[in-house]
């Protein structure tokens, strides 16, 4: 028995809920200006910004869902540009030293190499302190006196019983950007001192720097919203 062949025509069946063709792209940018320029290129009335401080990201969700002023409909939400915040080179260098104690020589070399970041005390004063630190590595420190202005004077004695003193500040102020590509801000650091048999050890601790980083992050998100005309939401998805 032969096969029976059915004749007919093919008809395309469309899905009324099928989403239109779309861009599927995840872009990472390195600075705020690049994020702003990318948003200008691809955004429309669906686009929103999501700022997540804990994850260090400001993301532009370019094909996000339409708001309630339009007919509500789901969108692909697959085209995203994200600014992954990076610490500035200056902040990274100082943050690597923060919290630890260092020898006089190591600390003096670090200050000399990064003195341009310090706005108070002035550069001349800081370089003089560095020279004092380098010149008194082998002396015996006897006592420390806190002065009225908060600075501390250390009295020392060398092998020949010649006495001297060295004054160092208890706080320095830096003028550095906290994030890559951003403007410098003033950051405070508190000096720490530890007398040892081998001489003084020096270090510093940030003073409320995390609050400054949070404020800078919020300012960056707000500026991005202002420059792109897109709303910003703080949190995560």
TrEMBL record:
According to its UniProt entry, this protein's organism is: Parasedimentitalea marina
One Pfam annotation, family name? DUF2303
Q: What is this protein called?
A: DUF2303 family protein
Q: Do you know which InterPro entries this protein is assigned to?
A: DUF2303
Superkingdom of the organism of origin? Bacteria
